[in-house]
Amino acid sequence: MLPFIPRDRGRQLTHAALALLTAAGCYITFTLTPDLRPVHSLTIGLGYLSLALIVVTLIIGPLQLLSKKRNPVNINLRRDVGIWAGVTGGLHVVFGFQVHLGGDIVLYFFERTAHDGLKPLSNLFGLSNDVGAVATVALILLLFLSNDLSLKWLRGPLWKWLQRLNYVLIVLALAHTVGYQVVVEREEVMTLIVLGLTAATLLTQMMGVAIAMRRRITFSK
């Protein structure tokens, strides 16, 4: 079996559930945005799904610390959620390039001038796209790391170190999302969703750090 395809039934069920969640999220977005083109609705739905799934990958570890002394290098649930964060995020980028500017990808990052050719966009729209491009690179890298072959080939410590790129990714993804919310004047409920996801990430990460420090102090006594 291909190394990207999970072998055990539990992980297969997890992927099936995440696929259904993705489909449901896209359907809900369609119903909430009836005036938008389908490709625009897909872009919004997949983008927020990817952001939420990235947050979930950062929440799983601290929550597991509540019942375990330490987390293993790899947590299958976290890895599988990360795979779907990569899939939905990648599709968000593909569809997103079809929403504005007639699908001219160059204009998402540059403006065409008569004398200077291409000039980088320095407005919030351009900066948000620049941040999104960097986030996409990080997301793709993490997606390619989320398989048994990469885990085996890179060994535990190096694989774990590379996976910490997830912390950089969440900052970039949030910055990209907030930038676009300002540019397109997104509804207030979407802003509240992002604030909730940010708060959940910060609180669980702080909890994880506090648990780890407390146990380290206990073991040192």
Textual characterization of the structure:
- With 221 residues, this protein is mainly alpha-helical.
- It is built from 7 helices and 2 strands; from the N terminus they run αααββαααα.
- It has helices at residues 9-32, 38-65, 76-96, 124-145, 148-163, 165-184, 188-220; strands at residues 110-113, 117-120.
- A two-stranded antiparallel sheet has the order 1-2.
- α2 (38-65) runs parallel beside α7 (188-220).
- It starts with 8 loop residues before the first helix and ends with a helix.
What is the topology?
Layout: H1 9-32, H2 38-65, H3 76-96, E1 110-113, E2 117-120, H4 124-145, H5 148-163, H6 165-184, H7 188-220
Antiparallel strand pairs: 1-2
Helix pairs in contact: 1-2, 1-3, 2-3, 2-6, 2-7, 3-4, 4-6, 6-7
Quick summary:
With about 220 residues, the chain is mainly alpha-helical.
Biggest pleated sheet: 2 strands, antiparallel
Range of helix content: over 70%
Q: Show unreliable segments.
A: none
Structural class: mainly alpha
Range of strand content: under 5%
Give the number of DSSP strands. 2
Q: What is the helix/strand order?
A: HHHEEHHHH
Shape: globular
Oligomer: single chain
Rg of Cα set: 19 Å
Strand order of the largest sheet: 1-2
Overall pLDDT level: 88
Q: What is the number of helical segments per DSSP (H or I, 4+ residues)?
A: 7
- How many angstroms does the end-to-end distance come to? 48 Å
